[in-house]
Amino acid sequence: MYISHLSLTDFRSYAQADFELGPGTTVFVGSNGVGKTNIAEAIGYLASLSSHRVSTDAPLIRFGAERALVRARVARGGQATAVELEITAGKANRARINRANPVRARDILGIVRTVLFAPEDLALVKGDPANRRRFLDDLMVALRPHHAATRGDYERVLKQRNALLKSARSGRYTAAHESTLEVWDQHLAQAGARLLRGRLDVLELLSAHLGTEYAGLTDGSKAATARYRCTVVEELDDDGGTAALPATALPPSAIPSASQDRDRQDPAGGTREAGAVRAPGLEGAGIGDLERMFLEALAAHRKKETERGITLVGPHRDELDLFLGPAPAKGYASHGETWSLALALRLASYRVLGEDDPREGAGPILILDDVFAELDADRRSRLAAVVAGAEQVIVTAAVAADVPSELGGRVLRVTPGHVSP
Amino acid sequence: MYEGAVQELIDELGRLPGVGPKSAQRIAFHILEADPEDMKRLSDAIRAVKERVKFCSICFNVSEQETCAICRDPRRDETVLCVVEESKDVMAVERTRSFRGRYHVLGGSINPIAGIGPDQLHIRELLNRLSDDRIEEIIIATDPNLEGEATATYLARMLKTIGIKVTRLASGLPVGGDLEYADEVTLGRAFEGRRSLIG
């Protein structure tokens, strides 16, 4: 898909701006602070209804204005759709599709699909585990919008259970606590099993691509792998290290569904690392198995949890360990390697989204916000070669020379509040 | 800030559910300008409700007597008990006119964040009622949200040992609605709870 026209009203630094875009690459060039990222952010917002820079909507609205308006014409395999999103701080956003009556903002999810690369992605590798969990969950929701509810359900049960544990702290643990805790255990295990299964499915899909994408960006001397460490089957201490690995019996019956996909659609290259992502202890577990394992883990941690007044096991404390060769990426990887790995994670999610909907013109839009400046010439051209296959690529850069020439495309100059060819 | 009585009224009204500061001010000035007789009836009604209305000693529904009209009615089916969160929910089920059993009002749902556990609800009283062996079925009609479901799970665990039939209201698509407008969660539940049309 590609965006053929983008219009911003009172969005960030733009009072009013209109861009004609086309398939292929468009490079927005301008000095620091002129509003290049705002364009990337606006397109990303249409796809995910959240910003990659801020967690609230207020900063998106031009200072002094009441609401921001983002309008786009999206071309998808010869079919054009007009989406319009009105962002009002503190109030529900409203959207319109093809100038029809306003609908809920979430109804436009799926019309625009993007994969956004930004300097913030470094946190995927270097940051705390919450960044990696969010990466997995965001991709899970982008693939299957109904998982937004899976995620929300788990968070709500977790809050209630934590409130109960807190009230049971410091020796006030009563029989009533015990019996209610069992109820919340059951609900947490149900919601948690669904969330875990969703994440594991995403991991299966990612596993086919992570190794290949990293190898494609580098000289291929180190293999990128990932390991999902689940607190339900592994004891993680507070630093995220593994304290013990209890042997959990798993039924041999369940077969991971995505492994079949992997066999079926091996690409021509064949260099793909099958199983670059592993989830020890969880292979092939169905929702029922996960729920049972979750309940066992909760029972095993009962004493510790009531002492600390917090839920210690579950997907909210899981970690996705990233490795380059044998060494963990966090701490050991160089700045350049960290960048390449973060890019590889995003590229892998781009492949996953593309495979999910392989129809002509359905592939996601790639947005590269200020990433070339961080890479050496070799990695730049490798990244350029990978993204050149996308139907539309939006690039922002402070210096035009940073953008590899093989990407080609149209260059638009950005000055404060304005964009000109 | 207004002087004395007016501000006091605005503050009191503002404490009511669903009434914000602007609405409170509007209602206060309406009361100020309204006919004194009308407003006397309103204040009498508020006083009467606090003085006369209490909770039924059997089912905890609102009642002006020791027991509520439903518990007193001999025509009601005493073999079925419908468990709801609030008295409002009794009225909702009553409007269907299809349930002829009796009720038990819990007085809320299990909600640790709000500090409500089983002991704060009328669950012990429900268990006491079950010593009456005429009761054959318990219908759990708590809200289909997280807290309501947790309460239903709790009750189901308690009642399992007693060996009584326990059912839960179905979740799914609203009648007369459009499938395309149903949200994913509701539609998902409707799929889980689908039933066979043949046999």
TrEMBL record, chain A:
SUPFAM superfamilies given in the database record: P-loop containing nucleoside triphosphate hydrolases
Low complexity bias: start-end ranges: 242-259
Binding site residues for ATP: 30-37
Subcellular location as annotated: Cytoplasm
Keyword Transcription regulation on entry: no
Keyword Iron-sulfur part of the UniProt annotation: no
Entry keyword set: ATP-binding, Cytoplasm, DNA damage, DNA repair, DNA replication, DNA-binding, Nucleotide-binding, SOS response
PROSITE patterns: RECF_1, RECF_2
AAA+ ATPase domain residues: 22-418
Region described as Disordered: spans on this chain: 241-283
GO MF entries: ATP binding; single-stranded DNA binding
A Gene Ontology cellular-component term: cytoplasm
Gene3D superfamilies, per the entry: P-loop containing nucleotide triphosphate hydrolases (3.40.50.300), RecF/RecN/SMC, N-terminal domain (1.20.1050.90)
Xref: Pfam families: SMC_N
Family: Belongs to the RecF family.
Protein name, UniProt field: DNA replication and repair protein RecF
Gene coding for it: recF
From TrEMBL, chain B:
Gene Ontology biological process terms from the UniProt entry: DNA recombination; DNA repair
Highest rank taxon of the organism: Bacteria
One GO MF term attached to the UniProt entry: zinc ion binding
Zn-finger segments (C4-type): 56-71
Keyword Iron assigned: no
Record field: transmembrane: none
Gene3D superfamilies per UniProt: 3.30.60.80, 3.40.1360.10, 6.10.250.240, RecR Domain 1 (1.10.8.420)
Domain Toprim: 79-174
Keywords: DNA damage, DNA recombination, DNA repair, Metal-binding, Zinc, Zinc-finger
Pfam families referenced in this protein's UniProt entry, alphabetically: RecR_C, RecR_HhH, RecR_ZnF, Toprim_4
Family assignment from sequence similarity: Belongs to the RecR family.
HAMAP family: RecR (MF_00017)
UniProt function note: May play a role in DNA repair. It seems to be involved in an RecBC-independent recombinational process of DNA repair. It may act with RecF and RecO.
NCBIfam families per record: recR (TIGR00615)
Protein name: Recombination protein RecR
Source taxonomy: Bacteria, Bacillati, Actinomycetota, Actinomycetes, Micrococcales
Encoding gene per record: recR
